[in-house]
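Study the following:
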Amino acid sequence: MKSILYIIFLSLVVGCSTATNESQSLTDLKIQKTELESQLNNISIKLKSVESAISDLDTIKRLVTVTSFKAEEKIFNHYIEVQGVVKADKTIELRSEMGGTITAILVKQGQKVTKGQILATLESSVIDNSVLQLKTQLDLATTTYERQARLWEQKIGSEIQFLQIKSQKEGLENSLKSLKAQARKMKITAPFSGTIDQVFAKTGELISPQVPFLRLVNLDNVYIESEITETYLKSISKGTKALLSFSSIDTSIEASITQVGNFINPSNRSFKTRIDIKNSNNGLKANLLADVKINDFNASGIVIPSKVIQKDRNGKTFVYTLEAKEANYKVVKTFTKQGNSYNNYSYIIEGLNSKSILVDKGARLVKNGDIVKLVD
């Protein structure tokens, strides 16, 4: 057919040349051009008709081959992925309340201690001597007071003398309490049970309240702190599920958010979340990094691979589905309403059901109405 068309076109061109040679009239040339164009159009229409008829009668024509899968209804989870840091409420650097020279360090790094245990002592001889002196004075004042009280009960002596002796005794008692409190401050004790992580000072050194003496940690209970952009403020609340992954120690934990911050950081427009977790084996260390996945959306519905979803020029999303047609399948352009996407999968709100068959491989090579061949 194409050969015939070429011969006809060549004949027309030759005829045109002959006519041109015979007549140089511009009007005649335009008339000839119009006639030739009309003939070409008629031939083109007849050629398309013949090709269409051949296509309908050709039983061995090649069809586009595609693969497919069935839409599946299942649970879809969407996660917000952020980084978090392991922190512990009971991690402190102990400092002495009083300045002085360290006379003894009673613990070492890595040692477990209990609440109230003495960790180190400072030079306190001056205070100790003052305590002994006050005790002696208080003993005398107490004896004098007791005797004066017995006399006063018998109405012997003056009331002023009795009150002066009583006041002196009570003043010495208060002074002794104050000195004993100072003496206790010359001993550094553990405020809670834990492990000595690091000792900064040495025996014989002079320390002050401004300089840390040692670090005490208790990692039985820790928490993960994360900063999340304010965009997700409505999606996250106390009790929201989360997955915690610690790649450094190859550990994963399921947990829930225990606290959502009430302050938006103006510098980065984020808020903090806290996730409390048990750490009975002390495998999690302070300042360890964690990958936090917060489950901000959870629903049951149609879930399909995101790669098969396309957009038309109007911004509408669609997929190609298949309808059985004799021995093959017909491609149907099906518009969908897409929800959240996560990990290369999308949640479909409208447009598909569990009976829908979607084009997988070859989806970019077909169009609406095409007849395709399905392969495994």
Confidence is low (pLDDT under 50) at residues 19-23. The helical segments are 2-22, 26-57, 125-153, 159-185. The longest helix spans residues 26-57.
